[in-house]
Design goal:
- With about 450 residues, this protein is α/β, with parallel strands linked by helices.
- Helices cover about 40% and strands about 20% of the residues.
- The chain has a seven-stranded mixed β-sheet, sandwiched between helices. A five-stranded mixed β-sheet has the order 2-14-15-18-17.
- The radius of gyration is 28 Å and the shape is globular.
- The protein binds pyridoxal-5'-phosphate (PLP).
């Protein structure tokens, strides 16, 4: 405590001078961390609040500086049970992809340089051969995300002309990917075919004209149409496009490389299956089932990929060196079989008894106090990220409830932690799904449970 000044004693306190504040013990660490300008600004604001005691001024300024400079994009623990959660950054990267990214970030990198010949290299070459090999396709192009891949393909192949799309596929995927809007932005014209629930090959045939440049189909990423439905099989779409002499572009979306049947999720077509079925060009995200960084890939016939690559939009949506490094590492791991250790596939493959045992250990942390009660319960997890939300598979969750605190209050205190823990609420209980929590994160979750248990 500083001694009260004469004027404070007289009833009218004056704040200390800036110089005096900056000579105090709190100053050196704060100046080193936040810089002189920000520190002075924070102290001035604290003084404007009417406070006159130096210690209290430093406390207020310190808190304000912490808040101002705290990063908001931080690692989070995903306890939602949705393995590919768009709000939580979709797929965590593999160890190899993280290492490749860190190396490319640390200094200069051979982005457009061929170290072998010393000549200029091509940015796409880092992923091109790997993608061609993995998908057995003519060529491949990487861009910023799948929305950009679709936009680029439409602009390059159908600008000013018509694109046939089934009315059942004029969908919105996530908040901002709306097929009709992307089509409009590309300069292509939408020609709607069939109805919402039924589109037949004859509907497509009736819509073909010399003005049609492309047949577009879209993977039903986050919805299902059930009941009296019909959509042409992939082989039928391929035949329709071939007969009409136009390319078939399939927006596959998820980037599935292997079938998901082994994880309890049937009927998720892989990229290679779409190409095999006759799609001329397939687009997908890098960070969904493909498990890489945010990116979009166009794979398929070399001549179509070349037209996309040559379009001005390709330059506007090209990937950076960090994305390319992580993408190349991920592509290589799909080929070698190392993908089984990708965080998403490790989580998907975790046996139920293992989830149960981890849940039981965590339950005991919560049982240490009276603030919260916890049970290990059956739950359902999902791949998410464009894999049908209806395709759920079994999981185990820790169900939290409390006599004194609402579910909303419990989730709020979990979110306040660093790293924040993001849970879901079901029937008034807070569920922490163990399938999307990595085993390495159990210690953090245990700490959070112990803290909750200690509260009343
Ligand atoms: C996810 C998805 C998109 C959007 O991909 P982004 O990588 O988020 O831009 C587009 N189409 C389909 C079918 C999708 O599943």
């Amino acid at each position: 405590m500083t001694a009260p000044t004469a004027s404070a004693a007289a009833g009218r306190a004056h704040p200390p001078s800036m110089d005096a504040l900056l000579k105090r013990d709190e100053a050196p660490a704060a100046l080193a961390r936040f810089g002189r300008e920000a520190v002075k600004e924070a102290l001035r604001r604290a003084m404007a609040g009417g406070e006159t005691r130096a210690e209290a001024l430093w406390e207020t300024a310190g808190r304000a500086l912490e808040r101002r400079f705290a990063p908001t994009l931080v690692r989070a623990i995903n306890a939602t049970g949705v393995l590919l959660h768009t709000n939580l950054g979709r797929a965590p990267l593999s160890a190899a992809a993280r290492a490749a990214l860190a190396e490319a970030a640390a200094g200069y990198a051979t982005v457009e340089y061929d170290a072998g010949s010393g000549a200029r290299g091509k940015r796409q070459d880092h992923v091109r051969a790997l993608a061609r090999d993995l998908f057995a396709c003519g060529d491949a192009l990487a861009v910023n995300n799948n929305a950009a891949a679709v936009l680029l393909a439409l602009a390059a192949l159908a600008r000013g002309r018509e694109v046939l799309v089934s009315r059942g596929e004029l969908v919105a995927i996530g908040g901002s990917f709306k097929v009709p809007e992307i089509l409009e932005a590309s300069g292509a014209r939408l020609r709607e075919v069939g109805t919402t629930n039924r589109t037949t090959p004859d509907d497509y045939r009736a819509a073909f004209s010399p003005d049609v440049a492309l047949l577009l189909s879209v993977h039903p990423s986050n919805y299902e149409i059930r009941g009296y439905t019909r959509r042409p099989a992939p082989a039928e779409l391929a035949r329709l496009a071939r007969d009409a002499g136009v390319p078939w572009l399939h927006d596959q979306g998820t980037g599935a490389v292997v079938p998901l049947d082994a994880f309890g999720v049937p009927d998720e077509p892989t990229v290679a299956e779409c190409l095999d079925a006759g799609a001329d060009l397939v687009t997908f995200s890098g960070d969904k089932l493909f498990s890489g960084p945010q990116a979009g890939l166009l794979v398929g016939r070399a001549e179509l990929v070349a037209r996309a690559a040559a379009h001005p939009v390709a330059r506007a949506v090209r990937p950076d060196k960090l994305t390319l490094a992580a993408l190349a590492a991920t592509l290589a791991e799909w080929k070698t079989g190392a993908w089984r250790d990708f965080p998403v596939y490790r989580a998907a493959a975790a046996p139920l008894d293992e989830l149960e045992a981890r849940g039981e250990r965590l339950r005991q942390r919560a049982a240490a106090g009276a603030g919260v009660s916890a049970d290990v319960v059956a739950s359902l997890a999902a791949f998410g990220g464009g894999t049908s939300p209806e395709k759920l598979f079994p999981s185990r969750a820790l169900a939290l409830s409390s006599a004194s605190r609402s579910a909303a209050a419990i989730t709020a205190s979990l979110r306040e932690r660093r790293p924040p823990i993001v849970a879901r609420v079901e029937a008034g209980r807070v569920l922490l799904d163990l399938r999307s929590i990595a085993p390495e994160e159990d210690a953090d979750v245990g700490e959070a449970l112990a803290a909750l248990a200690g509260m009343r």
